[in-house]
Design a protein that fits this description.
This protein is of the alpha/beta class and about 400 residues long. The protein contains seven helices and 26 strands. It comes from Xanthobacter tagetidis.
Length: about 400
């Protein structure tokens, strides 16, 4: 199978995806979820004309000529509106957030007034609708407030609540099953200390980025390099109702790389196997029915980078996210870069502020795909396109900042 470009692989992985079924959740629990349908306002905000200041609610015509003196006939406070109507020559003491009384159309701020018992005097004319928040000026009943495919933020939760939604419809969380393969792997703190052992790390990073993207994660543990054992793990994920099975390790073509044969034996149709990508060339993607399978490399940096580039967009797409693919930011190179080869490169890099609101991206000096210390020290992935020419320090570039 010929090497596929990163763009084509991403289109296959996260492109033709039908969002998962919707479910309703309390608005207080909606952060990070993706709206399954447009959210319409159930009421207007504000629901009536309201005062934006402390002062007096008046008829603008009564204070067109100043000085003016009006009779104070009552009070309107937030949650305790004035019950009557205001006629010519009258006013009502009003406070911020209170409903404007019937008959009034403006608010004179208290700094521009004097009070003598039941009389209010002002020498500052105030035009109609000054210091007034009109009914529906924020949003009106029936107006769309949040659109389907939008990922809910803390600010969106406030808007949904203000639109009088106790619950909102969101896409079900994708169920992601994780499995790592390798005879050399041991769990942290459980090894013998033998030089032949490697402590498991990939699953922890993949689980974290999957959950951050909105998934539920099932960790199926470590599976030895045995075809029947790997097939059994694949079947376990399918039977557990996984929407996505993610494996780490065994994705290449060596004698002990058994993931591809195991997937094929379990009727997974592979669409992607080997990408023109660094790090992460031996990535696999396939399907069995509605279940999608990502076979990631075993090298920890390759695994994590491929998780960011492909797993996260897939999880987002399954929730109906309208912008599932990874986001990039503009930056400038912090050092000279040689010409790139035929593989698209995602280099671990640090980011610094250039002092003018921009970013400077400098690749770390060692880019080996097994070095977790380099990955942990990085702030972003610096993107170098396939066959990119040499570039000098200060040249424009694109980066994918790490969200965590």
């Amino acid at each position: 199978m010929a090497l596929m470009s990163v763009a084509e692989a991403l289109a296959r992985v996260a492109g033709p995806v039908q969002p998962l079924a919707e479910e309703w959740v309390p608005v207080a629990e909606a952060a990070g979820r993706v709206l399954a349908r447009d959210l319409i306002a159930n009421r207007s905000q504000p629901p009536a004309d309201m005062s934006a200041m402390d002062g007096y609610a008046v008829r603008a015509a009564d204070i067109a000529a100043t000085p003016a003196q009006l009779a104070v006939i009552g009070e309107s406070a937030a949650g305790r509106p004035f019950a009557g109507a205001v006629g010519p020559g009258e006013c009502v003491r009003i406070f911020t957030g209170a409903v404007l009384p019937e008959g009034t159309d403006t608010v004179v701020i208290q700094e521009n007034t004097t009070r003598d018992g039941g009389l209010m005097a002002t020498t500052a004319p105030t035009a109609a609708l000054r210091n007034v928040r009109k009914a529906g000026c924020d949003f009106a009943t029936g107006a769309p407030g949040l659109m389907a495919g939008h990922r809910i933020t803390a600010r969106d939760m406030m808007l949904a609540a203000a639109m009088d939604h106790a619950e909102i419809p969101v896409a079900r969380r994708p169920r992601v099953a994780l499995v790592q393969t390798g005879d050399e792997l041991v769990m942290p703190g459980r090894g013998s200390g033998a030089d032949s052992e490697i402590v498991v790390s990939n699953a922890f990073g993949l689980a974290a980025i999957a959950r951050a993207a909105g998934a539920q994660v099932m960790d199926l543990g470590v599976v030895r390099d045995d075809l029947s054992a790997i097939r059994a793990a694949i079947r376990e994920a399918m039977e557990a109702g996984a929407d996505v099975l993610v494996s780490s390790g065994g994705a290449s073509v060596g004698d002990h790389d058994l993931m591809a044969p195991a997937l094929k034996a379990e009727q997974v149709e592979l669409e992607v196997h080997k990408i023109a990508l660094r790090p992460g060339k031996p990535l696999m993607f396939g399907r069995r029915g509605a279940v999608r399978v990502l076979g990631l490399p075993g090298n920890p940096v390759s695994s994590h980078v491929c998780g960011l580039l492909f797993l996260v967009p897939l999880i987002r797409a399954l929730q109906g996210d309208t912008a599932p693919a990874y986001r990039t930011l503009p930056a400038r190179l912090g050092c000279d870069m040689p010409a790139n080869d035929w593989r698209m490169d995602f280099m671990r890099a640090t980011l610094e502020d250039d002092g003018a609101g921009g970013l400077v991206a400098t690749p770390l000096p060692v880019q080996d795909s097994s070095l977790l210390s380099v990955l942990a020290a990085a702030d972003a992935l610096l993107i170098r396109e396939a066959d990119a020419p040499a570039a000098a320090a200060g040249a424009p570039c694109r980066v994918i900042p790490f969200a965590d």
